[in-house]
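Hey team,

Filing this mostly as a record. A colleague (T.K.) asked me to run one chain through the structure pipeline before their review meeting, and I want the input and output archived in the tracker in case anyone asks later how it was produced. No errors, nothing strange. Just documentation.

Input sequence:
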Amino acid sequence: NDLTRSVGVNLSSFQDFQFKLGAAIRDTGRPVLEQLKRNRAVVLALLVKEDPRAGDSSIQYATGEVDQFGVLANLKPLMSAATDLMAIRQDAARSIWLESTPTRASRLLVHRVVVGMFLVVQFSKRFDHAHYAQDVTRATRLLEKVCILGEMMKRNV
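Output structure:
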């Protein structure tokens, strides 16, 4: 009430803003992946959302063409196997790195950003890990913050 008097603004005019803000936060994944794709070592980047209640997954954003069925069919068993392996050490898998055969010459990162959200990135093996490590770290941190902010917005709406 003091704010309304001091600024002289009708705060009810901002009521619809909370819904637009939530959509803007959800759409932030796309520019983060596009920025990551600017690194020459990155062949493809995906943001995959898993819904444990429904038992399904969907690709939220991709920086190129992708076989959705292949990615989604293999992602869950891969993370499950990694979690099982890490559980032996009383730890949890946050990232998995896979190396392809020499003829395919690529690396694959599957990184759990937050529960139910994964960053999947394919890299060219022509580049050393140091060439893209900083960009991957920056992207995962930003995606983590965006996902947490999005969840907070969902709970407060």
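Quick notes for T.K.: Helices lie at 2-7, 17-26, 29-37, 68-88, 133-156. The radius of gyration is 19 Å.
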